[in-house]
Amino acid sequence: MAAALSSIAQHRSCSSHLHPNNLCTYSSKPAHDHIPISFATISSAKSSSRLRSGSGRLMIRSATTKPAKSPAEEDWKIKREVLLQKRVRSVDVKEALRLQKENNFVILDVRPEAEFKEAHPPGAINVQIYRLIKEWTAWDIARRAAFAFFGIFSGTEENPEFLQSVQSQLSKDAKIIVACTAGGTMRPTQNLPEGQQSRSLIAAYLLILNGYANVYHLEGGLYTWFKEGLPVVSEEESSGIQESDS
User: Fold this and answer.
1) Catalytic one among 108, 119, 129, 180?
2) Residue 233 in contact with residue 227, Cβ under 8 Å?
3) Is 180 a catalytic site residue?
């Protein structure tokens, strides 16, 4: 359990999973949840070359353009409004455990696969909503360069297969509790009048948009689940599966 909490603590800070120019506001509690916020604009060092042909000159410029905004990148205010309109309910960790045991709810863990393997609730399903940048398009190369400029060499991007992976494992009428590390919240506070965005709330938003009707959100996140000493499963590739009910 200590190892799980230590791992969560390491992932809590705004580090390699955040874009370097993330302008979002986060509280000081364990709520940094590795949401890659898209660059407002990345101008990859625009290279220009001149080709001379006789007396004429041809200027060639190459620039990197950002792909169209995806639903996951929608403003948090809009996402929050949809979640509230659809009555997406937030539950604490003990209520989530009860719903899982007594009402056949499935915990959908949207953290990266490596974090899931370190520790997760028994019976949870893992579909990461963000992944390490994989492609090598001009846009991705520019993003890698921007991350590297800030000393970050493991930036993340939205997982384009997230919904497809969820749909292959969970039907539209499945009862789902979406979980991530910190959880975020839709509840307003003095410092955060619109609550706080998180990976699990973004995932809940995407599920609602795609026809899932029974979507809940884990308030306090898996950090709280581990801290409360609720059942945990750890998967070690070399030594198999170990259970801890401490």
Assistant:
1) 180
2) no
3) yes
